[in-house]
């Protein structure tokens, strides 16, 4: 376990250096996608909490996606969390100011945390989504996430890597993937906990080819 911890720490050091380099290189002429997520959790009891959130995505200052969540999180034994949420999602074309198209996405998920050793935590999350669109068309999708976080961090800054795979039941295929390299920071004045990540989103087109695009995601947890 000690050897595993050293290997994982080496990997994190290299990934963290890569992320910092990519975040601060000049943008040049390419487009930059930026996401802001705001999360607020209210404890209703020792094991039950109410969670709300909002997420905004923009490219070159053009807001093209936003969604709003609310739901309940219940802490089960063995570090398992059960969450049921409802999401209202609004999207439009990235390069124009067309009218917003709306959709609804209720979902339920289970998350299990494991202590790899004294320094690292592994999280597994499985989510089932029901997606309803404005024309009453509906689809089901499964999302499976694996995350590895350095628990102690460096001066309270905790690096992590995360990968999430999306499976479309109607198409019977895995057609979307999100890979994150990020950092969770200590709470600022005991009010908000910032988080920053570089995300690579890979999408499978109808002809079977994959394309990827980077984005920078900021999360603010209250």
3D structure, described in words:
This protein is mainly beta. The protein has one domain (2-24, 68-90, 101-221): Porin (Beta Barrel), CATH 2.40.160. It is built from 1 helix and 12 strands, in the order αββββββββββββ. It has one helix at 2-24; strands spanning 33-43, 48-59, 62-76, 80-91, 101-104, 107-115, 120-133, 138-150, 158-168, 173-184, 193-204, 210-221. Strands 1, 2, 3, 4, 5, 6, 7, 8, 9, 10, 11 and 12 form a 12-stranded mixed beta sheet that branches. The longest helix is centred in the first third of the chain and has 23 residues, at 2-24. It is globular. The model is unreliable at 10-30 (pLDDT under 50).
Q: What labels describe this entry?
A:
Porin, twelve-stranded mixed beta sheet, globular, mainly beta
């Amino acid at each position: 376990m000690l050897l595993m911890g050293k290997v994982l720490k080496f990997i994190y050091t290299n990934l963290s250096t890569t992320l910092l380099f990519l975040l601060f290189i000049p943008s040049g002429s390419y487009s930059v996608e930026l996401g802001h997520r705001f999360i607020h959790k209210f404890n209703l009891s020792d094991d039950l909490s109410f969670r709300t959130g909002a997420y905004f995505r923009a490219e070159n200052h053009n807001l093209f996606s936003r969604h709003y969540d609310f739901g309940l999180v219940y802490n089960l034994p063995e570090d398992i969390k059960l969450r049921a949420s409802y999401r209202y999602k609004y999207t439009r074309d990235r390069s124009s100011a067309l009218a917003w198209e709306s959709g609804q996405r209720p979902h339920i998920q289970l998350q299990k945390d494991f202590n790899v050793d004294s320094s690292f935590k592994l999280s597994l999350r499985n989510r089932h989504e029901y997606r309803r669109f404005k024309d009453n068309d509906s689809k089901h999708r499964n999302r499976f996430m694996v995350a590895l976080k350095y628990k102690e961090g460096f001066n309270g800054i905790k690096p992590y890597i995360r990968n999430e795979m999306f499976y479309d039941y109607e198409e019977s295929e895995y057609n979307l993937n999100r890979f994150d390299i990020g950092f969770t920071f200590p709470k600022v004045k005991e009010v908000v906990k910032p988080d920053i990540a570089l995300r690579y989103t890979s999408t499978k087109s109808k002809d079977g080819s994959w394309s990827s695009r980077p984005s920078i995601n900021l999360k603010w947890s209250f």
